[in-house]
TrEMBL record:
Protein name: Vacuolar protein sorting-associated protein 62
InterPro entries cross-referenced by the UniProt entry: Vps62
Signal peptide segment: 1-23
Coiled coil regions in record: none
Keywords, sorted A to Z: Signal
Statement: the UniProt record of this protein carries the keyword Signal: yes
Amino acid sequence: MGVQSIALSLLILLSSAWNPAEAAVVRRRAPPGVPQYALDYAPLVYLHSDDEYRPSNIRSMLRNTQPRVNFLPISGGPLPVTLDNIDQLNNFGGDSVYLTSIKDVATDIEQAWLKGVTPDASGLTDGAISAAIIINEKDANTTDVFYFYFYNFNSGPPVWNIKFGDHVGDWEHIMVRFQNGVPSALWYSQHADGQAFTYDAVQKLGKRPIGYSAKGSHANYALDGNHDHTIPNFNLPGAFFLVDFTNKGPLWDPTLSAYYYKFDGGSSTFTPYNPASPVNWLYFKGKWGDQQYPKDHPNQYILFGQARFSGGPTGPLDKELQRKDICPSNVKPCWVRPFLTAKLMKE
């Protein structure tokens, strides 16, 4: 055992004030070359205490799905599909390819692989690489670091006790913009929209910003409580119509089990910081999940244009990694909030 390992063991044994945040700081590991500030200011995420769908091993999606186009299996594609060859599916339908559950989720929503992995006491999703950290050095002064979070299932919150928006696969992210290695602002993804805040405004554990992952939907919020998102990019306190719920459940440190990449905005290419990390999966243009089931599919319904089971999402490449503002281009105006709203009503 090396000197560093001995010191770490002694620290764990002797510290009576040991907690997940401190454990995450001590245990955090990243490949050489990753900017230290991308780790020092990496967001920590509180999962909802009652969310049964936890962060998931990205590879586990591939073991439990089959690529299809228009509900039909692809013929001639790579077998088995892996993170190293999934980009080859672009030749069989591009963004029309869906990673479709081998076992129908609409008739068996309790499949174990959908549940993901609950972080341990240090914030690690043990045995599951459930995050991708993508670093875009835009110019000599500005760097955007995207912290992508993966879940095998999205359980949409009910509207008037009616479920909408369940789907296989869920990519969410928080982005931190740095100026000369100093964090200036954050973007919290929320469904098709989100919110931006200054770094000084958000809650922190030490220097690390806090995000709250909503129950089931995994939208990211800067506060715990109830979030009515009926108005895009604006959250109302209380619970009126479209509501997400967050609280201080298990604390997750995505940096403990993640792939790390450098992104070149000019060429839209990825370079892994660890040469052993898979990279081709980042070029997959298809959907991480099932195609929206037709209305006559078992347990499917479509009301007011909204489906109980909707289609899966696209991956990180489709999330505007080379954006001008802290917000994606569909969010106008891009309001970077210098404060948090009042404490929201508890669930």
